[in-house]
Automatic annotation (TrEMBL):
Keyword vocabulary terms for this entry: Metal-binding, Oxidoreductase, Zinc
Domain Enoyl reductase (ER): 11-333
SMART domains, per database record: PKS_ER (SM00829)
Xref: Gene3D superfamilies: Medium-chain alcohol dehydrogenases, catalytic domain, NAD(P)-binding Rossmann-like Domain
Domain of life: Eukaryota
A Pfam family recorded for this sequence: ADH_zinc_N
Sequence similarity: Belongs to the zinc-containing alcohol dehydrogenase family.
Protein name: Enoyl reductase (ER) domain-containing protein
Amino acid sequence: MKATTITQFASTNERGEFKSVSTKITPLTHHDILIKILACGVCHTDCMFMGRDGDVLGHEPVGKIVEKGSSVERLDVGDIVGTSFLKSACLDCRECNSGQDIMCQHRIMFPEGNMNGFAEYQVCDSRFAYKLPVGMDPKYAAPLFCAGVTVFNALYTSKILPTGRVAVIGIGGLGHLALQFCRAWGVHCTAISRSLDKKEEALSFGAHDFLASKDFTPEYIENLEKYDLIINTVSGDLDWDVYLSLLNRSGMFYLLGVPGTSIEIKSPDALIVDQKAIQGSIVGGRYVIELMLEFAQRHHIMPKIEEYPLDLNGLHAAVERCEKGQARYRAVLVAK
């Protein structure tokens, strides 16, 4: 491929303003592909990385391959693919060889490099690009490459059985997908939110029942049937002791949202005597992403999205909705 220039949208300050910049694309290396962006989700993580001049964000892109390097074999020009948080790994260490490339000591993660999704085109390593199942719409697939795989990875690594009981805290961009994956997984799934405002929608996404956290008192919790797994999708501080009390013995609390401050547990005996655990979980690696796409297609799992044009005006509008927590439930930029 001859060197060419493309348009990208680079962050200029922490208020979420972007500008159009031109980037020269040199000939592709052996494993590279050039993707024409069709859609890109706007994630709260993008908002967290705004503020460094020149950064091109967007880690939920889906596009069509228009050029490929000489060593790219499993993908072809014309294929529709997506990329995710993990951009590269060594592919030769213990973690990579065991399918845990997301834990590679030499991994490269978003937002490193400026070939990301808020752009006309993206260059990426084809070994970290994933072909969409036939019939999957790019604009609905885009949020699966971060939000979708994040909640799927929690279910997958927890090894929860279909007979288990799972609670999902937060009915937002991650939470509404977590409910769909849980329902398809076969577990009993409870949605937890502050008030009853989202009850009906939570039930429509697949929750079997709903709890309002404002009702949590010791007496109320004592009478609840407990959970084998709790998936927290909320970024912010919680009453950790209260939520640990919702777990069965040997139960797991999966942390997907980022706490506002340190995690303080007033009664750590529960971690020892009842063998409860708090587990962090990040987006999945290559194998998990492939499994997630197959699973989502099989069970017709789709995010509820707000659609915006893939241009500066659309990006500013989508980022503002995302920063204010108003998107219902994922904002997606779609090319004209």
